[in-house]
């Protein structure tokens, strides 16, 4: 059985939705951001500040490449789409779903951009990050769920139906 891989912007709800989806489908849940923090024994923001963006992306990609699981719900960091080898690995073993939200909603959901562990170049705005990543999310996604205006139950129902349709 393949994995269900959730991608999307920080604040899109990948981790929250992933936990509930995993419970609903009786599947294990994996959050790659948590795996990175456990492996490094540091918060994402600390890794970015201390080691830089390129090193963080390298660490993130290695964590993804080391994943050897089947039949799991995997929540990824928003920056996962920036490393093609990692995404190739996720797609080989999974069904990738882009949790899509408009920029204004992402902006509302992200309270403090400086502590969130978001991969951003110095001087780059959240809107610029959004504009850079959306085409990549769309490129790698096998399916997209438009999350705006939907509650958790509606999103989970759509994901469950998608999953049942490909099994």
UniProtKB/TrEMBL annotation:
List of residues binding substrate: 33, 78, 133
CDD domains: SK
Subcellular location field: Cytoplasm
Binding site for ATP: 11-16, 116
Cofactors (names): Mg(2+)
Catalytic function, reaction form: shikimate + ATP = 3-phosphoshikimate + ADP + H(+)
Major location (coarse): cytoplasm
Pathway: Metabolic intermediate biosynthesis; chorismate biosynthesis; chorismate from D-erythrose 4-phosphate and phosphoenolpyruvate: step 5/7
GO molecular function, one term: magnesium ion binding
Assembly, per entry: Monomer.
Family that this chain belongs to: Belongs to the shikimate kinase family.
UniProt protein name: Shikimate kinase
Organism of origin: Defluviitalea raffinosedens
Lineage of producing organism: Bacteria, Bacillati, Bacillota, Clostridia, Lachnospirales
Gene: aroK
């Amino acid at each position: 059985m393949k994995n269900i891989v959730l991608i999307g912007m920080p604040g899109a709800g990948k981790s929250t939705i992933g936990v509930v989806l995993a419970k609903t489908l009786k599947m294990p849940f994996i959050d790659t951001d948590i795996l990175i923090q456990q492996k490094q024994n540091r918060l994402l923001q600390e890794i970015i500040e201390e080691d830089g963006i390129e090193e963080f992306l390298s660490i993130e990609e290695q964590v993804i490449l080391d994943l050897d699981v089947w039949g799991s719900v995997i929540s990824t960091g928003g920056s996962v789409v920036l490393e093609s080898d990692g995404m190739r690995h996720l797609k080989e073993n999974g069904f990738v779903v882009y949790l899509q939200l408009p920029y204004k909603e992402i902006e509302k959901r992200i309270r403090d951009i400086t502590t969130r562990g978001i991969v951003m170049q110095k001087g780059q705005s959240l809107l610029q990050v959004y504009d850079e990543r959306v085409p990549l999310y769309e490129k790698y996604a096998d399916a997209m769920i438009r999350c705006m205006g939907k509650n958790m139950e509606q999103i989970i129902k759509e994901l469950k139906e998608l999953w049942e349709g490909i099994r």
